[in-house]
Design goal:
single chain; globular; about 5% strand; two-stranded antiparallel ribbon
């Protein structure tokens, strides 16, 4: 008999009157806030403006949720479209089922849209957010504990997780792979923060390091899981995905370091208050600068044209004064 284990909650949802409060959703929400908070601190430290990370996250998070769900439904379609299954369940995201690969891929599309609207480089934003994403995953994995899902093989280790009887699961104690992945993600976040400070990573390399390090852990953790999955050449689909994505991340790290060494000097353009005011009036900063140059040029030309006329006037005035003096000195002139 196993004397020590991690108990699972009796339910993954609490009801506040008619409103259901789901543990899985809370874990995801907490993860998003952690990622935005840490990402904002790192963005400001790199010269960006406060609030930019949150503004772009408004685009990235919804895209990421849709992408994560699509990846899960497509790779585990038999859970929703097989015999005796209800396809409506594919929309019940609160019951679990988000694929990180789809979340990152489609989330990057949303982030690209947000970055393009703000005129900032996507790789720099991704570098700032990378450790925060890892911590968000660490928080999100505890949603699997609330739902009693994605555990590993049976074990009697003191840190085994207790699983109760339910749909598609048998009561017992199992490897808490959700806990393994959560701890691994915390380690990945610390690794990226350290490497970024030590080697001054830029142009997307901090994000690539996060991806590569996560894939290493996901590979061996995925191998321990016993939930239903597709297999290719004896390996689970997500193991193959981890291998392929790891290779791509490492290749990007190497090529980026050679082609674009160092870090971006400016991650977010600062147009200033005057430029913002001008933009509201319909003029761009470039148009304002051109107008100022034209005005200065016109003033200089007017001043240059005025100088010869002033000289001629002074000369004419001098001659008139000399003539008056000569007349005054003529002998015999009558005095009036």
């Amino acid at each position: 008999m196993n004397l020590a284990f991690i108990p699972s909650p009796s339910t993954g949802v609490l009801h506040l009157g008619p409103i259901p409060l789901r543990g899985y959703a809370f874990c995801i929400i907490i993860g998003v806030f952690v990622a935005v908070w840490l990402g904002n601190k790192r963005w400001v430290a790199r010269g960006g403006k406060p609030g930019t990370v949150a503004d772009i996250a408004v685009w990235a998070v919804p895209f990421g949720l849709v992408g994560g769900r699509l990846y899960h439904v497509i790779t585990d379609y038999q859970l929703y479209f097989g015999e005796g299954r209800n396809w409506v369940d594919a929309f019940k995201i609160w019951e679990g089922g988000l694929g990180i690969w789809g979340a990152i891929a489609l989330g990057a599309v949303g982030a690209w849209i947000g970055c393009r609207r703000r005129g900032i480089p996507l790789p720099a934003w991704a570098d700032a957010l990378a450790p925060g994403i890892a911590l968000a995953q660490a928080c999100g994995r505890w949603g699997n504990w609330f739902n009693q899902e994605l555990y590993g093989r049976a074990t009697d280790l003191p840190w085994a997780v207790e699983i109760t009887d339910g749909p598609n699961r048998v009561a017992g104690t199992y490897h808490p792979t959700f806990l393994y992945e959560s701890l691994w993600c915390v380690g990945v976040a610390l690794l990226v923060i350290w490497a970024d400070r030590r080697f001054t990573l830029g142009h997307g390399r901090a994000f690539a390091l996060y991806v590569a390090a996560y894939c290493v852990g996901r590979g061996w953790i995925e191998y321990m899981r016993v939930d239903e999955a597709h297999h290719i050449l004896g390996l689970r689909l997500n193991v193959w995905t981890s291998i392929v994505v790891f290779v791509l991340a490492v290749v990007y790290l190497v090529l980026s370091a050679k082609l674009r060494p160092g870090r971006e000097e400016i991650v977010e353009p600062d147009t200033g208050a005057d430029a913002v005011a001008g933009a509201k009036d319909g003029d761009t900063p470039a148009e304002d600068a051109e107008a100022e140059d034209a005005e200065a040029k016109g003033a200089a030309e007017a001043e240059a044209d005025a100088e010869p006329k002033d000289a001629e006037a002074e000369a004419a005035g001098g001659e008139a004064e000399a003539g008056d003096k000569d007349k005054a000195e003529v002998p015999g002139a009558k005095k009036l």
